[in-house]
Amino acid sequence: MKLDKATIAALAEHLENAELQARDVTKITDEHPHMDWDDAYAIQDEIRRRKESRGHRIVGLKAGLTSFAKMKQMGVENPVFGFVADYMDRPDGGDIRTSELIHPKVEAEICVVTKADLSGPGCHLGKVMAAVDFVLPAVEIIDSRYRDFKFDLKSVIADNTSASRFVIGGRSRDLQDLDLRTLGVVLEKNGEVVSMAAGAAVLGHPLAAVAMLANHLGARGQVLPAGSFIMTGGVTEAISVAAGDSVSVRFQDLGTVSMRFV
Ligand code: OOG
Ligand code: MG
């Protein structure tokens, strides 16, 4: 750790205020170029603690920058991990208010709920497969608090990996009935196909992102508990949206997830 406790608390407040007030800020590594990975996750943890202390629940964990398309889009080379909270949840087919957001983008994500604890180091695809309860589709609405989505990995980790809203689709499936590598995803905006991919776009297999998450938590002395909802990361690049747009994502075998931006 390179930053002291007071600086971590101040940066968490700064980034969380930017989220809650929907205003952008410059990336924090501009002023703290020496901050390290532990500092970045400590700031994210402090944002989490702030939300929990106000009565919010953490309802899921997310991996981000897990697909080649996303890494290329954002100019980074490693996945990142964050959380989603109860107030970020929006219903399938519902409206998403853009006045609460800075510059939202949508991502199509294959998600799972687990039925057994996963721990690292040494977590791998086979252990994840044994621990998956069911698979379900979701759309994540990311909204980096950084101006023009310009950030580096440490800044985006501190900013809870741009987490903002999420919409879970209503159809779950057993893992045994799916091949997550070849599962096709088609993202439509205003009725036009704007992006598509298959599950293998995420680290070769979306569940590899869950193994990485378990190993990441294991390195910090934490387990990934049974019953966790986990988002494995956008399969395609993220697509910008504005008020007036409607988005539908068609997931092979998992149904469609839709929302309208108002
Ligand atoms: C970081 C979050 C990325 C994903 O699914 O790749 C992410 C960002 O691109 O702002 O959630
Ligand atoms: Mg995402």
Overall mean pLDDT score? 97
Please give the radius of gyration in angstroms.
17 Å
CATH superfamily: Fumarylacetoacetase-like, C-terminal domain
The largest pleated sheet is described as:
8 strands, mixed
Number of helices: 6
What is the percentage of strand-forming residues? 25-35%
CATH architectural label: Alpha-Beta Complex
Distance between the termini: 42 Å
Shape: globular
What is the total number of structural domains? 1
Tally of strands: 13
**Topology as H/E string?**
HHEHEEEEHEHEEEHEEEE
Which quaternary structure do these chains form? single chain
Share in helix: 25-40%
Secondary structure class reads: alpha+beta
CATH topology value: Fumarylacetoacetate hydrolase, domain 2
Query: Can you identify the CATH class?
Result: Alpha Beta
Low-confidence sequence ranges = none
Ligand names:
2-oxoadipic acid, magnesium ion
Give an overview in words.
The chain has 262 residues and is of the alpha+beta class. The protein has a single domain, classed as Fumarylacetoacetase-like, C-terminal domain (Fumarylacetoacetate hydrolase, domain 2). It is 26% helix and 30% strand. The longest helix is centred in the N-terminal third of the chain and has 17 residues, at 37-53. The model has no long low-confidence stretch (mean pLDDT 97).
